[in-house]
Design brief:
This protein has about 120 residues and is mostly beta strands. The chain has no helices and eleven strands. Strands 2, 4, 5, 6, 9, 10 and 11 form a seven-stranded mixed beta sheet that branches. A four-stranded antiparallel beta sheet has the order 1-3-8-7, with no helix packed on it. The protein is globular and about 40 Å long.
């Protein structure tokens, strides 16, 4: 059974930084894509960033326009981990952040097969 376990998150002031990490486990895990979505209260889950493995520790990365230049995603294919470094955080970044895994790098959450339990990120003004 595949599990995605997130760590990081918390409370930070606007302009600050946080780092989220996600580790995938399970003998059957072979997803080509890992990424992050977020969901704020009363809003739909939205794509934040994702990577598609193209080689050992080599990947293509994609970002939502709202986080480009502020967030950086990275991954380790040997460890099945993905991290999201979030800088220059804004109050509108406040949400529950979910790690995801699948085989298509897409901004649509319906294309992902596995999800973490979510971690809260709160940015105060």
């Amino acid at each position: 059974q595949v599990q995605l376990v997130e760590s990081g998150g918390g409370l930070v002031q606007a302009g600050g930084s946080l780092r989220l990490s996600c580790a995938a486990s399970g003998r059957s895990f072979s997803s080509a894509v890992m990424g992050w979505f977020r969901q704020a209260p009363r809003k739909e889950r939205e794509f934040v960033s994702g990577i598609r493995w193209i080689g050992i520790n080599t990947y293509y990365a994609d970002y939502a326009d709202s986080v480009k230049g502020r967030f950086t995603i990275s991954g380790d294919s040997a460890k099945n981990t993905v991290s999201l470094q979030m800088n220059s955080l804004k109050p509108e970044d406040t949400a529950v952040y979910y790690c995801s895994a699948g085989n298509v790098l897409s901004s649509s959450y319906g294309t992902y097969d596995y999800w973490g339990q979510g971690t809260q990120v709160t940015v105060s003004s």
